[in-house]
Amino acid sequence: MAEQTHTETGVAHDEGGGQFPPFDTSSFGSQLLWLAIFFGLLYYLMSKVALPRIAGILEDRRDRIEGDRAEAVRLKEETDEAIATYEQALGEARAKAGAIARSTRDSLAADVEAKRQAVEEELAEKLAAADARIRDIKAEALGQVSGIATEATEAVVTVLIGGKLAEKDVADAVAASLNGGR
Amino acid sequence: MANDPIHQFQIQKFFSLEIGGVDFGFTNSALFMAAAVTLISGFLILATSGRGLVPTRMQSIAELVYEFIAGTLRSITGSEGMRFFPFVFSLFAFVLICNLLGMFPYFFTVTSHIIVTFALAMLVISVVIVYGVIRNGVKFLKLFVPSVPPWLLPLLIPIEIISFVARPLSLSIRLFANMLAGHITLKVFAGFVVTLSTLGFVGISGAVLPFLLTVALTALEFLVAFLQAYVFATLTCIYINDALHPGH
Predict the structure, then answer these.
(1) Who contacts A137 (Cβ-Cβ below 8 Å, separation ≥6)?
(2) Count of CB atoms within 10 A of residue B98's CB?
(3) What is the DSSP code (8-state) at residue A182?
(4) Which ipTM score applies to this complex?
(5) Does A173 touch chain B (CB under 8 A)?
(6) For tag attachment on chain B, is the N or C end more exposed, with fewer CB atoms within 10 Å?
(7) What is the 3-state secondary structure (H, E, C) of chain B?
(8) Which positions ≥6 away from B107 have C-beta within 8 Å?
(9) Nearest Cα residue in chain B from A11
(10) Contact at 8 Å (CB) between B117 and A5?
(11) CA distance A114 to B87
């Protein structure tokens, strides 16, 4: 291509510059004027209208993306916080539940123990009462024995000696013999 | 005349406008500059009129071009260079659309005229020099002093100066020559197809090769149209960076 250009420009120079359009100086003034006008217009439109507008669009988009990202980060932090709070609450609840279970078990055990003790005491009381009653009955029976013995002795003595003895004497004698017999 | 590959570069005057003996007439070149400016501004302004948070397809393209040029400028000059963004963007868009408009058959290619590309290149270099001097004062001359052993400086400073002076030339001729040569080549090969196909069966079968070449060259020219606009914008960024940081 370079060679071709060289040839063409060479030809143009041989023909004296007037024939080959790019080297025709008579058109230079017009081209420069209109180039200045149109390139100046283009520069003005680009720098005042088109490029600031595109820059604005790109900046808006960048800001929007930044904003959305910041918002996403903030929401994620909030979520993490909520999860941490939830975990903590869960842990506390679990600990509380454990404590309640333990205290319930303890109180139930204490209750049962108390009831058991009460029942045992009651049983012991009843046992003691029964013992006392047995003793009473036994003593009563023994008392009746001494009465019977006295009557029998009185009767026997009456029959043997034919007279009545003082009831008190007989009772003393029987008691003495009973105590001595024990 | 129909097969003359130079004809497409002819300036055609629509009306005359003579001021002080110089003709400033409105030509096909001015028309296509106007078309390019209208297309660029119209597209960018219409595409972004929705100001959508979620872009439409058109708005997405506008944003893509914006970020492409903004990224190129920022990576080369850093954020300080962003004040030149409208300038670099306008240059890129103008060169790109002028190049692409030239790809339509019978359309005029504004950038195939050396005076246009040279004016744009001189504009770039003027901006660089004026801003470089305002910002750095005399230190701007450090641009010509590379950081090498002192005994090399007498050799290297002239080279740096020559390369600086050559910048507007290389910048303008690169774009101009690429567009010119590309369009001439296309026209020549397309001319072969037409000429050969008038020669009967042998000619038509012989025209297949230049026809395929024309198709391939058209694709190549689209690539070149974009690439030259990009190269122009990138070199502008590099030169602006010199004005911002003259020390090598």
Answers:
(1) none
(2) 30
(3) -
(4) 0.91
(5) no
(6) N
(7) CCCCCCHHHCCCEEECCEECCEECCEEHHHHHHHHHHHHHHHHHHHHCCCCCCCCCHHHHHHHHHHHHHHHHHHHHHCHHHHHHHHHHHHHHHHHHHHHHHCCCCCCCCHHHCHHHHHHHHHHHHHHHHHHHHHHHHHHHHHHHCCCCCHHHHHHHHHHHHHHHHHHHHHHHHHHHHHHHHHHHHHHHHHHHHHHHHCCHHHHHHHHHHHHHHHHHHHHHHHHHHHHHHHHHHHHHHHHHHHHHCCCC
(8) B32, B101
(9) B6
(10) no
(11) 100
Over residues B42-84, the pLDDT tens digits come to 999 999 988 888 889 999 999 999 999 999 999 999 999 999 9
Please report residues of B whose CB lies closer than 8 A to that of A57: 48, 51-53, 55, 59, 63
DSSP, collapsed to helix, strand or coil, labels residue A24 as coil
Closest by Cβ to B185, choosing from A1, A21, A31 = A1
Mean pLDDT in chain B?
91
Q: Is B78 left (phi over 0), alpha (psi -120 to 50) or beta?
A: left
Residue A43: how many other CB atoms lie within 10 Å: 18
Does residue A15 lie in a domain region?
no
Distance from CA of A100 to the nearest CA of B (A): 59
Which helix (H) or strand (E) segment holds residue A56: the answer is helix A51-161
In a domain, A18, yes or no: no
The neighbouring-strand residues paired with B15 are B26
CA nearest B231: which of B170, B163, B186, B144?
Answer: B170
- Can you give the pLDDT at residue A166? 75
Q: Tokens in use for A10?
A: 């060479």
A44 touches chain B (CB under 8 A): no
Could you say which residues of chain A have pLDDT below 50? Answer: 1-18
**Number of structural domains in chain A:** 1
Please give the residue range of the domain that contains residue A34.
25-181
**Phi and psi, residue B26, nearest 5°:** -80, 120
Could you give the CA distance from residue A158 to residue A135 in angstroms, rounded to a whole number?
Answer: 34
Tell me the pairing of strands B13-15 and B22-23: unpaired
Distance (Å, rounded) from C-alpha A178 to C-alpha B161? 159
Instruction: Indicate the domain borders of chain B.
Output: 7-244
Sort out which chain B residues have CB atoms less than 8 A from A49's CB and list them: 41, 45
